[in-house]
Every structure is written in C-alpha cells, then in structure tokens.
Amino acid sequence: MSSLFTDSQKFAYKVNNTDFFEAIDITINFNINDILKQYQGVSYSPYVVQDGERPDNVAQKFYGNPELDWIILMTNNIHNIYDEWPRSTNQFEKYITEKYGSLSLAQGTILYYYDAKKNIIDLQSYNNLAEGSRSNETQYEYEARKNIQKGVIRILASGVAKSISASLRNRTKLPVI
Predict the structure, then answer these.
(1) Could you report the per-residue pLDDT of 52-81, keeping only the tens digit for each?
(2) I want to staple 66 with a disulfide (CB 3.0 to 4.6 A). Which of 3, 56, 82, 155 is the partner?
(3) b/e string for 131-162 if b means 16 or more Cβ within 10 A?
C-alpha cells in the first residue's frame, strides 16, 4: 500500500538492556483537513469507484502515483479499507454469504420497513399503511446501498495532492532519537 511512513519519524526501541532497533513512530496522526486550511479555495471532484478498483488504482488514475493512495483514503476519512472502501462484486457476494448465510436468504429477508417519508417503522405500522405509502428493504438491498454509498468519494486536485504529500514528508523527516 502507501509509503507515507517511509520517511517518518523513527525511534530506538529497546529490546533489552543492550539491544535496540529502529522503529517507525506510527502514532503520529495527520489530519488532512488541518493541512488543507493553508490552501485557499480547495475543491474536490466527485468520483465513483469502479467495481474492483482499489485506492492505489484511484491514486494512479488521478495522481499518476499509486503510493499516494493514502491521500485518497485520508481525504475521504477512510481508516479501514476492509470496512470503509466499497467491496467488489465478488467480495460483496462473499461478505453477504458469510454474514447472512446465503445470497438468496439475504435477498428474501426484510430488514427494514419504511413509511412514505422513508422513516423506519415497525411491521404493524407497515401493514396499516396503503401499498403506495410504504416500502421495505431486504438485508441484501441494505448492504448493497451501503456499498454503493462507500463508492462515492472525493478527489483532490492533483497539484494539491502532490503539495500535501511533499508537506507531510517534510514534517515527518525527523532524526532518529
């Protein structure tokens, strides 16, 4: 994945009384929004992640460098790509099967009942409403909706992304303690 930590601050980790090894300080946390404050008028372009596309693929497409995938993730406040990045069709079907037992079971099991204003209601309230004033959502539809929402991301302009990358690299290049 990314190489943000390649030049990060390092420290001497004590193994025993005489031995140490150099380790990267991964506790340094960057808030990309704090860095963006220095860029006036920063705007984002919307992008829909394609089936099977990974953060490094998106970084390559927009920034010409797959190692800038961390900018894609940080810009979209994604900390866990396994849960917060959209699943490919194959990954999604495997996830549904593992979570609900089978695709057909998930497609046939209603998870939520809605009124006309899309408020979640109970089954009794649902049954009391006219056909055109109610709807429902299966487990499969719910998970598919969430997966689609994850795929709508923001992309920073290439020049801004590269400036941020350079700025962070300069901030993280500190001597070994």
Answers:
(1) 999 999 999 999 999 999 889 988 989 899
(2) 56
(3) eeebeebbbbeebbeebeebeebebbeeebbb
**155: which strand partners?**
45
17 contacts: CB under 8 Å, gap ≥ 6 = none
Distance from C-alpha of 89 to C-alpha of 84, rounded to nearest angstrom: 15
- Under DSSP, the state recorded for 18 is S
pLDDT digits (tens, 9 = 90+) for 111-162: 999 999 999 999 999 999 999 999 999 999 999 999 999 999 999 988 888 8
Pairwise CA distance, residues 42 & 148, whole Å: 26
* β-pair partners for 112: 137
Contact assessment for residue 127 and residue 110, using Cβ atoms and an 8 Å cutoff: no
Structure tokens at 161: 């992304």
